[in-house]
Structure formats: C-alpha cells, structure tokens
Amino acid sequence: MPTDLPTTPPPEAAPDVMPDADLAMDETRRLIASNKVEGTHVYNLAEEHLGSVYNFMVDKFTGQAIYAVISFGGFLGVGERYFPVPWERLTYDTRLEGYVVDIDRDALDRAPSYAGDESPWGDPAYGRGVNDFYKGPWQR
Description:
The chain has about 140 residues and is α+β, with helices and mostly antiparallel strands. It has a single domain (about 20-140), classed as PRC-barrel domain (SH3 type barrels), CATH 2.30.30. Helix content is about 20%, strand content about 25%. It has a seven-stranded mixed sheet, with no helix packed on it. Strand 5 and strand 6 form a beta hairpin.
C-alpha cells in the first residue's frame, strides 16, 4: 500500500473539512470525489474555456491520477474528441471554479486525442506519445 497517500486527519485538523454536511461526503479542502471532478470546466492561462474533464486515468498500482481526459469540440456529443493531459499539468482555480492548464487552443488541437469510439490505451506507444507531446518544444 503506498505510503504517500493522505492519511485520516487528526481531530485537531478538523478545519480541513468543509462545514456543510453534504460537501463533507464529497470533498475537503484537499480531497474531492471523482464524480465532482468529472464535468469540471478546463481553461487555459488566458481563461479561454477549452472543455471539461470527461474522466481521469488512475495508475492501478500507485493510486495516483496520471491523466485528466478533457472532452473538447463537437456538438451534443457528436464529433467530440478526448484529450489526455498529464494530471500534474492542471491547477485548480477557485475563482474560475475549474482547472487551468498551460496550453493554448492551437496546441490542444495538435495534442494526441481520440474519438469516443476509439480505445487507444491498449497501445503503450499512445501513452508515450502523450507524454512526449507535453514535453515538446511548444512549451518554451
């Protein structure tokens, strides 16, 4: 079992828990339930709306979130594309009530993506391609 996962806070750490009983079941200041992450808006640094978190990919062995999969484009689900973004690239912005990622719309258009009827995760090269893209020269 990983030792770097959050532990149950001691009673004196109670301020970390939201006061609303409904929220306490879904989130604290540091933790949030997956169903509350899915659907959260994603923006770039210019505060342009890029899409929403469709889901996220979790490493089965470490329990760590590896990618946020952002849904982008399309209309009523038709033509929508899914863009995996390394989880560590997202920052939650309380003012926007969404995640911010340091990628502009043009770069996102060039990022690895897939359609709803595709399943690229069975190919290890796909994950390497995602990682290589986010280490690419467009960031400089």
